[in-house]
Automatic annotation (TrEMBL), chain A:
<keyword id="KW-0411">Iron-sulfur</keyword>
<dbReference type="Pfam" id="PF01512">
    <property type="entry name" value="Complex1_51K"/>
</dbReference>
<keyword id="KW-0408">Iron</keyword>
<dbReference type="InterPro" id="IPR001949">
    <property type="entry name" value="NADH-UbQ_OxRdtase_51kDa_CS"/>
</dbReference>
<dbReference type="InterPro" id="IPR011538">
    <property type="entry name" value="Nuo51_FMN-bd"/>
</dbReference>
<feature type="domain" description="NADH-ubiquinone oxidoreductase 51kDa subunit iron-sulphur binding">
    <location>
        <begin position="426"/>
        <end position="471"/>
    </location>
</feature>
<protein>
    <submittedName>
        <fullName>Formate dehydrogenase iron-sulfur subunit</fullName>
    </submittedName>
</protein>
<dbReference type="InterPro" id="IPR019575">
    <property type="entry name" value="Nuop51_4Fe4S-bd"/>
</dbReference>
<dbReference type="InterPro" id="IPR036249">
    <property type="entry name" value="Thioredoxin-like_sf"/>
</dbReference>
From TrEMBL, chain B:
<comment type="similarity">
    <text>Belongs to the complex I 24 kDa subunit family.</text>
</comment>
<dbReference type="Pfam" id="PF01257">
    <property type="entry name" value="2Fe-2S_thioredx"/>
</dbReference>
<keyword id="KW-0479">Metal-binding</keyword>
<dbReference type="InterPro" id="IPR041921">
    <property type="entry name" value="NuoE_N"/>
</dbReference>
<dbReference type="InterPro" id="IPR002023">
    <property type="entry name" value="NuoE-like"/>
</dbReference>
<feature type="binding site">
    <location>
        <position position="127"/>
    </location>
    <ligand>
        <name>[2Fe-2S] cluster</name>
    </ligand>
</feature>
<feature type="binding site">
    <location>
        <position position="82"/>
    </location>
    <ligand>
        <name>[2Fe-2S] cluster</name>
    </ligand>
</feature>
<dbReference type="GO" id="GO:0046872">
    <property type="term" value="F:metal ion binding"/>
</dbReference>
<keyword id="KW-0408">Iron</keyword>
């Protein structure tokens, strides 16, 4: 009997040797005269265990990890094809506390199915959302998304239904759905994982968006640093087309929608939606002044929905299970689930999807297991290079757009980068300014020149030169960048800089902060 | 190791033409040119300008805006080290210094023998298994000095 074995094809697993493991398993199976079928799935998101190999047994799927090619011989000897005991045996992955504690909607299928298989996607509830969308029609689809309370997962948290309604109401001969998959923030990889592990979900979400607003063409704009995600998306688009789920008259309906993948070229600012649109048009990735909003004049000046991968992949679930079901999760005005990415110097790094409201401390200490180095945690940068450094005494902060904003921090795309006590926060603040100066599109002065002056100021502060006066200038400069920049690049760079300065002033040569009674 | 073709006007036109049916075709065209020739030669700029009915300055502006597009060919192997925050938190600074020391050149430069170009990259999305690197398109995570040395030796061979 052929035994089915899952070896992830997620980029993270490949970078940890999954291809070599798959080859070793195939070779060992030939030697053992045991027919096996190796399925290259996505990742379950327990990335410290990658490559995590799963064997299908009568009791269910049994996982082993992290497996290196050199472990395969020993695994075969231990009878891993029948779920035999071994030092690397994890047991049933869904019973692992890291997965058991999650609420997986967007990532429900990721790591379970074969990402290239249309049948597998269907068998696990895929295209149920689209089926319902086709019954409802455009106005009711938007109503359903509105009920869900879904807010843009790219970072801005703008209500998705309002954006869609604006595009639906706009009159034009052509409209577009653009998926922002330019996931450039360090510490984030959810978009990449879903594109590699469940690409049909993004296709389904974009198709539903297209029907809702009357768009017939979609673009996924992603990064050149993500070759595996591009490959997986293109493959899935081809398969969807072959099954009549993309193209003219989708699934026999009167609606038509098709899509393609476009690759950026290493410019961080292209993650900003208007810079992304210019880049898609074949221009420099320069930020546009708003208004006009992309919803009115977006790609090629046509009404355009531009949404993040995680917003679009939430849509099939909202349609399949109803907006109210989705809205049941979360807290305050942050409804539904958020795929949170735990990374950096952390013991158990990975993807953790859960309802809004979980605290940062739970995520980093309980779920993440603290630092990989074993040293005490010093701070975590949440929300990418433009996110604030949150010190340990604020780790009771719940994951919620408003709660973060109240502490001058942001959730961004849900990435958490953990730093241990060896981190030099003044150096990190300098890095934030330098990154902004390199990546600035150059359109607005506060960002273009402010960041360069910011690097110079940081150099002086680090050298101990007129520290007090330079810190005052730095704070003033940050205020100008925050209020005067055209987009989030210049506007949010002050978050990491000022948070590092406010929480760890002694590292900038300033007097230590006074303990605040409230904290 | 990637193999690139020598420059040819005719070949360049053929590569560009493959994408002329697309909306907003300049970026896919530039990627294809670089994939074919290893960099974006100056000679291709007027060709693209004519094809897309835009000025040479506009094409030049696009080519120089994006970090990916090379004006000069790279070394025989390209080693990219992630220098973003998650990799910094996991010891990336020391590894970058180690690579510079071993190769005898700074990030962004090519070794004197033209074998290896070493560059910073800002995030490969492997942040939970940091630090990471990419050698000629192959990604490697959980980088440590031993693994980095192996990559450097492979690139130098």
């Amino acid at each position: 009997m052929t035994i089915r074995i899952y070896v992830p094809k997620d980029a993270c697993a490949i970078a940890c040797g999954a291809d070599e493991v798959a080859e070793a398993i195939a070779a060992a199976a030939v030697s053992a005269r045991q027919p096996v079928e190796i399925v290259r799935n996505g990742s379950r998101g327990m990335l410290w265990l990658e490559p995590m190999v799963e064997v299908v047994t009568p009791e269910g799927r049994i996982a082993y990890g992290p497996v290196e090619a050199g472990d395969v011989e020993g695994l075969f000897a231990a009878g891993f094809l029948t779920g035999g005991d071994h030092a690397l045996r994890i047991g049933k992955p869904e019973e692992h506390p890291f997965l058991a504690k999650q609420t997986r909607l967007t990532f429900a299928r990721c790591g379970i199915i074969d990402p290239a298989s249309y049948a597998d996607y269907r068998a696990h509830g895929g295209y149920k959302g689209l089926e319902r969308a086709l019954q409802l029609g455009p106005a009711e689809i938007i109503e359903e998304v509105k009920k869900s309370g879904l807010r843009g997962r790219g970072g801005a948290g703008f209500p998705t239904a309002i954006k869609w309604k604006t595009v639906a109401d706009a009159k034009a001969d052509r409209k577009y759905i653009v998926c922002n998959a330019d996931e450039g923030d360090s510490g984030t990889f959810a978009d990449r994982m879903i594109m590699e592990g469940d690409p049909f979900e993004l296709i389904e979400g974009m198709t539903i968006a297209g029907i809702a607003v009357g768009a017939t063409k979609g673009y996924v704009y992603t990064r050149s640093e993500y070759p595996h995600a591009i490959w997986a998306m293109e493959k899935a688009i081809e398969v969807a087309r072959a099954h009549g789920m993309l193209g003219v008259n989708i699934a026999g309906s009167p609606y038509s929608f098709d899509m393609e993948v476009r690759m950026g070229a290493g410019a961080y600012v292209c993650g900003e939606e208007t810079a992304l649109l210019d880049s898609l048009e074949g221009k420099r990735g320069t930020v546009r002044a708003k208004p006009p909003l992309p919803a009115h004049k977006g790609l090629f000046q046509k009404p355009t929905v531009i949404n993040n991968v995680l917003s679009l992949t939430a849509v099939p679930h909202i349609l399949a299970d109803g907006g109210e079901f989705y809205a049941n999760f979360g807290m305050g005005r942050s409804r539904g689930t958020m795929p949170i990415q735990i990374a950096g110097n952390v013991k158990f790094g990975g993807l953790f999807e859960t309802a809004f409201g979980i605290t940062l401390g739970e995520l980093i200490n309980d779920i993440g297991g603290g630092t990989a180095t074993g040293k005490p945690v010093k701070a975590a940068q949440v929300g990418g290079p433009l996110g604030a450094y949150v010190p340990t005494w604020q780790f009771d902060l719940p994951f919620d757009y408003e709660a973060f904003a109240a502490k001058d921090a942001l959730i961004g795309h849900g990435g958490i980068v953990v730093f241990d006590e060896s981190a030099d926060l003044a150096k990190m603040a300098r890095f934030a300014m330098e990154f902004c100066s390199v990546e600035s599109c150059g359109k607005c002065t506060p960002c273009r020149i402010g960041s360069t002056r910011g690097v110079e100021l940081m150099d002086k502060i680090i050298a101990g030169e007129r520290v007090e006066a330079n810190l005052a200038t730095l704070t003033d400069l940050c205020q100008t960048m925050k209020l005067g920049s055209l987009c989030a690049l210049g506007g949010f760079t002050p978050y990491p800089v000022l948070s590092a300065l406010n929480h760890f002033p002694e590292e900038f040569g300033a007097p230590p902060r006074r303990l605040e009674a409230a904290e | 190791m990637p193999h690139y073709e020598p420059w040819s006007d005719e070949r360049a036109r053929a590569v560009i033409d493959e994408f002329s049916h697309l909306e907003g075709p300049l970026m896919p065209m530039l990627h294809a040119v670089q994939e074919t020739f290893g960099h974006v030669p100056d000679a291709v700029v007027p060709m693209l300008a004519e094809k897309l009915n835009v000025s040479r300055a506009e094409v030049h502006g696009v080519v120089t805006f994006y970090h990916d597009f090379r004006h000069e060919p790279a070394g025989r192997h390209v080693l990219k080290l992630c220098r973003a925050e998650a990799c910094q938190a996991a010891g990336g600074d020391a590894l970058a210094e180690h690579a510079e020391h071993r190769l005898g050149c700074k990030l962004g430069e090519t070794t004197a023998d033209g074998r290896v170009t070493v560059e910073p990259i800002y995030c490969l999305g492997l942040c939970a298994t940091a630090p990471s690197a990419m050698l000629d398109g192959r990604i490697v995570a959980r980088l440590n000095e031993r693994r980095l040395d192996a990559l450097i030796e492979e690139a130098q061979s």
